[in-house]
Each structure stands twice: as C-alpha cells, then as structure tokens.
C-alpha cells in the first residue's frame, strides 16, 4: 500500500493556503512542476480530486477542503513532535518564534528582551509583529510557537496564560481648565470625536465595546495604523482616544496631551500568552511568562494606581 508522505501534505497545505501553484511552490521553495506532481500523486493515493483546475484559476473541492484541514493538523503535530525532541532536555533553548501585537510590542519588548537574554542565554528569539487575526492563523499553522496578545483568543485548540491587566485611559487635548483628577463616565465620550485605529486592530474593538453608547453612524471615520499617529491627532485637538496604560510612558510625552482615568470599574485588557494545546513546549512558554512578569514586576496590576494629581509620565505629584 502506498503511503502518503509529509512532503505531499506540506505541498498541498501550501496550495490550499495560496490557491495558486506558483505562489505555493515559492512558499515551500520548490519548482512549480515539482509541487504539481506531488499534489497529483496525493490525489492518486487518496483516490479523490483535491483541486479543481480551471483557466481562471484553481479552487479546492469539498474533499480537498477537508483534506487540507486534516493535513494542517498533521503538519502542526509533526512540528510539535520535532520541537519536543529538540527542546526536551533544556528549558528555553533553541529557536522560539514569538508573535506579538503592535499595541504591545514596542512598549513591552524593551523591558523584557534584556531580562530574557540574561535568564535564558541559549534561546534564539524570532519576533513577528502583526495583528491578532494573522498571528492566530500563523500559530495554528505552526509558523509561530507562541503569541503575546490581548485575551481572550477563542479556539479549543489553544491554551492561554493570562499575565497582567492593562487599564485604559482617556487621552484628551490638555487645556488650562481641565481637571486631570476627574473620573470619566464612558457614556459621556463623544462618538464623533473618538479616534480609533483602523479595522483589524483589537484596540479598536475594545474601545467600541467599552463605550457601548456609541452609535455606528457617530463613530469617527478616522483610522490609523499606529498609536503614535492617533496621539498626534489628539495633541492637535482633533479628538480623543482610549490609550492602554502600558503605552502611556512612550506615547504621551507631549504636554498638549492629558490622560484621564475612567470611573470604576475601570476598563482594562488582559494581556497573556497563547499557544497550541498540542505543543510540547509548555515549559518554555511558562518560563517566558515568568520572565515577562519578573521584568515588569507588576504585582496585582501592570502599574499601581496613581493618586489624584499624579503625572502619568513620571508618577510624581505636580508639587513633589
């Protein structure tokens, strides 16, 4: 009986993801004829057509979609098996592929990378920064080992470790009569003045979920790809935004911006690690989580609550 090979599954997985023979061949670093031949051999072994080949392009058959789903799981578990063999003897050694979302990466990495290098000198960290949806897909496909993101991340195939709570602040343009000790009722936030990141950023969804009174027609049409751009707009008086406290020390260095706390319960996001439940590297991910917490020393929250009148940039009272 002829057996299916991992090569055939890998080539077909690439074709299922790209739906183009040329791009799939490039993704797995082989020639297009070689990839096409392996896919045809897989079809012959299974006795079913996996791909509809048409002049306008290709698409998977119903059976092809099911085989693609199963192939993805087999390939992921095979990578996990290899990982187990490579990393069974030592925690946090070898390559660790970490995905991280943009609203965390530039604010957290400078604090944790030196600590990670000191505590685990034999790990080679490979970083991937992009939006949550893309990271989750790459994690599921085995292209990443673990991701650092805002929780929850849905999926029975994932295991998570919450690390810390990151509260949201309201960033507004500063003015002489502004009482920075006031607490903000989210229902008073004007939807038409709320500046948000573009679609796909989890911060956008979190802001809209918290400010439940906002109507779709009232939301600002503005959409940015970075918090830095949003904060410049706030400083110039174009609107307000919700800012994670993690980002405050980096993004709020302009005296034209003031930060206000919300009424209790203050909105917050849970930041944590996510990995495939089938991964054998749970010890590594737990060690990574511990390293992050030690670098932050967050206690119960990311940062201790500031007293009324304290400055978010320095943690000092104005009269200190």
What characteristics describe this protein?
320 residues; alpha/beta; 8-stranded mixed β-sheet; two-stranded antiparallel sheet; 10 helices; elongated; disordered C terminus
* Helix content percent band: 25-40%
The helix/strand order is HHHEEHEHEHEEEEHEHEHEEH
DSSP strand content? 15-25%
Report the end-to-end length measured between terminal Cα atoms: 81 Å
What's the number of extended β-strand segments? Answer: 12
Q: Roughly what is the average pLDDT, rounded to an integer? A: 84
DSSP summary: helix tally: 10
Radius of gyration: 24 Å
Q: By helix and strand content, what is the structural category?
A: alpha/beta
Largest sheet geometry: 8 strands, mixed
Q: Could you characterize what this model shows?
A:
The structure is a single chain. Helix 5 (105-119) packs across helix 10 (282-296). The radius of gyration is 24 Å and the shape is elongated. The longest helix is centred in the first third of the chain and has 26 residues, at 62-87. The protein has helices spanning 6-18, 21-27, 32-46, 62-87, 105-119, 132-140, 202-210, 227-235, 245-251, 282-296, and strands spanning 51-54, 57-60, 94-100, 123-129, 146-151, 158-173, 183-184, 196-197, 223-224, 241-244, 257-262, 268-276. With 320 residues, it is α/β, with parallel strands linked by helices.
């Amino acid at each position: 009986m002829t057996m299916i090979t991992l090569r055939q599954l890998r080539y077909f997985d690439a074709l299922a993801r790209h739906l183009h023979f040329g791009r799939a061949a490039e993704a797995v670093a082989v020639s297009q004829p070689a990839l096409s031949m392996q896919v045809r051999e897989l079809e012959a072994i299974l006795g079913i057509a996996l791909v509809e080949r048409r002049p306008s392009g290709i698409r998977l058959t119903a059976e092809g979609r099911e085989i693609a789903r199963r192939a993805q799981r087999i390939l992921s578990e095979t990578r996990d098996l290899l990982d187990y063999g490579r990393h069974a003897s030592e925690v946090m050694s070898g390559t660790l592929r970490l995905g991280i979302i943009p609203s965390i990466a530039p604010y957290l990495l400078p604090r944790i990378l030196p600590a990670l290098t000191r505590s685990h000198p034999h790990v080679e960290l490979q970083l991937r920064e992009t939006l949550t949806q893309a990271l989750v897909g790459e994690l599921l496909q085995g292209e990443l080992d673990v991701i650092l993101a805002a929780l929850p991340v849905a999926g029975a195939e994932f295991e998570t470790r919450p690390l810390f709570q990151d509260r949201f602040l309201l960033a507004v343009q500063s003015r002489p009569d502004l009482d920075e000790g006031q607490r903000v009722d989210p229902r008073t936030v004007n939807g038409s003045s709320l500046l948000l990141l573009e679609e796909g950023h989890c911060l956008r969804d979190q802001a809209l979920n918290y400010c439940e009174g906002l109507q779709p027609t009232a939301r600002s049409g503005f959409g940015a790809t970075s918090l830095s751009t949003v904060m410049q707009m706030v400083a110039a008086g174009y609107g307000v935004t919700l800012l994670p406290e993690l980002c405050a020390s980096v993004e709020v260095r302009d005296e034209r911006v003031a930060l206000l706390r919300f009424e209790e319960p203050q909105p917050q996001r849970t930041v944590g690690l996510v990995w495939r439940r089938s991964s054998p590297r749970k010890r590594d991910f737990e060690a990574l989580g511990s390293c992050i917490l030690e670098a932050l020393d967050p206690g119960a929250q990311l940062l201790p609550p500031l007293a009324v009148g304290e400055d978010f940039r320095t943690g000092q009272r104005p009269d200190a």
